[in-house]
Specification:
Layout: H1 10-19, E1 29-39, E2 45-54, H2 56-62, H3 76-91, E3 97-101, E4 104-106, E5 112-119, E6 122-135, E7 143-147, E8 154-158, E9 164-168, E10 174-178, H4 183-200, E11 218-222
Parallel strand pairs: 1-8, 1-9
Antiparallel strand pairs: 1-2, 2-6, 3-4, 3-7, 5-6, 7-11, 10-11
Length: 224
């Protein structure tokens, strides 16, 4: 399973370091997300702009040795190899981004415009993920997506008051709805997730797609 490749950089190798010989509960990496759903000139959905901020533990591990000029600053150029490694490692797992029309999966292309930034002891990965084919405006009512790790090694959680926004060159009467934002429902879901992780420990097969059960599914609502 490629989650455990002996790499020196990137998200996968951090999981490797934690998982080899050390029994830890899932997850190993925590990510706070913000996403823009990109609409084209005909109000069709063309893809996503992701902004993922990693936890301080992963950040500290990942940047070790990357300040190549020793100036105490982690520049975008110094972080470029790490950004590329993360993007390449995520390819097998569809960049943790799963889009649907109804229950039919919508494929995506490879990411573009990706980079890493370091600020306040945290790494943030930004990238644009185009869809293979745009979603016509009339089908947006059936469109949804979720961002999650199938193997639950990485906890991806939407953050902020408006974690998912609509990015459009033209004004549109569309808004994103993120899962069930009811506090009681969210608390019950979190408790069920914690129980499941405790029971399974490290014995989670990414192919089981268990992460989908606990992912927040996002829908887009547009006025006529």
């Amino acid at each position: 399973m490629k989650y455990f490749q002996p790499l020196k950089l990137g998200l996968v190798l951090f999981i490797t370091a934690l998982s080899s010989g050390i029994a830890l509960a899932h997850p190993h990496v925590w990510v706070t997300m913000e996403t823009e759903v990109v609409l084209g000139p005909d109000k069709e959905i063309t893809g996503f702009k992701h902004r993922w901020t990693f936890d301080e533990g992963y950040t500290s591990f990942a940047i070790d040795g990357l300040d190549t000029n020793g100036d105490g600053v982690y520049s975008e150029e110094e972080l470029k190899p790490l950004a590329q490694t993360n993007i390449e490692a995520l390819k097998e797992f569809e960049y943790f981004t799963f889009a649907f029309i109804g229950e039919t999966k919508v494929p995506s292309k490879q990411p573009v415009d990706y980079r890493l930034d370091y600020k306040d002891k945290l790494l943030t990965l930004t990238f644009t993920l185009p869809l293979e084919k745009p979603i016509p405006h009339e089908k947006i009512k059936d469109f949804s997506f979720a961002v999650y790790d199938p193997g639950m090694y990485v906890s991806l959680t939407f953050g902020g008051k408006t974690p998912v926004k609509i990015a459009s060159a033209k004004p549109v009467a569309c808004a994103a709805r993120v899962g069930d934002r009811d506090a009681a429902a969210a608390k019950a879901k979190a408790k069920a997730k914690e129980t499941t992780l405790s029971q399974l420990g490290e014995n989670i097969d990414p192919s089981s797609n268990l992460g989908y059960q606990y992912a927040e599914r996002v829908t887009i609502q547009c006025k006529p």
